Amino acid sequence: MRILGLETTCDETAAAVVENGEDGRGRILANEIRSQIADHAAYGGVVPEIAARAHVEVLDGLIARALAESGLELADMDGIAAAAGPGLIGGVIVGLTAGKALALVAGKPLIAVNHLEAHALTARLTDGIGFPYLLLLASGGHTQLVCVRGVGDYVRLGTTVDDAIGEAFDKTAKMLGLPYPGGPEVEKEALRGDPERFDLPRPMLRREVPNFSLSGLKTAVRLEAERIAPLSATDVADLCASFQAAVVDVIVDRSRVALRAFQAEAGRPTALVVAGGVAANQAIRGALTRFATEAGLRLVTPPPALCTDNGAMIAWAGLERLRLGLTDDLTTPARARWPLEPAEEAPEVEPTGV
Ligand code: KG4
Ligand code: ZN
User: Fold this and answer.
1) CA-282 nearest atom, ligand 1
2) For ligand 1, what atom is nearest to the CA of residue 182?
3) pLDDT digits (tens, 9 = 90+) for 93-139
4) Is residue 257 pLDDT above 70, yes or no?
5) Within a 10 A sphere around the Cβ of 325, how many other Cβ atoms?
6) Is the pLDDT of residue 1 over 90?
7) Which residues line ligand 1 (CB under 6 A)?
8) Per residue in 177-214, pLDDT tens?
């Protein structure tokens, strides 16, 4: 089975071709990506209108390159997968509409992929792990601890009540005058900083529900920065190191609590999986490796290029759904919001039909 996957929900435009290998993993035949970081850098964050236009400009070319790289044609695909949300709606429409057009023209099934589900299933593409597993999904827009029971079968154990972890990294970086996106910059600074110089809070530590709260930590960094301003290079490095150390402590504590909730829900997980852009952080990976070893769990962290947004994860999620017969028709909407758990989607107020 071979799938073309398209990703346009945020600031990366990507197209990939993935097939299922014999060992239960996926085989990536092509994985083309164009990052828009340079287009947004001057604004210190993603500008939705610029993102949508940039997706329009490069998506066709990336699809052509991905097909050429794979040595295959559209007619060789078994399905076309496109991320249909959640994300910046203008960009989502671009990728989903392109996917619909290709599916229509080539007479192939369309699979409208939830971007979060694609992050959640990436560990099966890379490592072929079985269900159920405990997932920490940490990106710029999302922070969730999830019990992954099967394709389309997710129980959210915890989430953030305010900022996402990646967002906290990005905002901290911006506050300290570091470029966007802030995660890698903060990590780089932290390497030469003193993590103990500032005594920052560890919000939610030991709370029984594995939720996160990061805005207080961000504020604490700001107050410290204001207190000692003007900041020297050493101050910035020490603030980054202290911030990252606090985040690491919170992540390990929340994962420990989530593991207990998981075991009550679904027994023993096959692995602890860390996905999303933040999983590229070596300090976080290191701490979770120690935690997993302690807990006797296998830790699976897909390589950084497959942890940040990419087309291969969309193609793989499409493949997983297609082989279960889960396809979508051309009326499928692009969705700015699209929680992993169907129960969360129930409208709070019944539609009146007006
Ligand atoms: O999954 P992703 O590529 O995009 C979505 O948000 O969906 O994640 C991007 C986020 C950004 O907030 C970025 O700052 C963060 O992941 N990130 C990192 C690192 N690399 C990327 N955060 C901390 N340390 C890193 N090395
Ligand atoms: Zn993402």
Assistant:
1) 26
2) 14
3) 999 999 999 999 999 999 999 999 999 999 999 999 999 999 999 99
4) yes
5) 7
6) yes
7) 10, 139-141, 166-167, 169-170, 181-184, 187, 276-278, 280-281, 308-309
8) 999 889 999 999 999 999 999 999 999 998 999 999 99
75 Cα–ligand 1 center, Å: 35
Measure 273 CA to ligand 2 centroid, in angstroms.
15
Q: What pLDDT, on a 0 to 100 scale, did the predictor assign at position 344?
A: 53
Q: Tell me, in angstroms, the distance from the centre of ligand 2 to residue 231's CA.
A: 32
Answer whether residue 338 shows pLDDT above 80: yes
Q: What is the mean pLDDT of residues 329-353?
A: 71
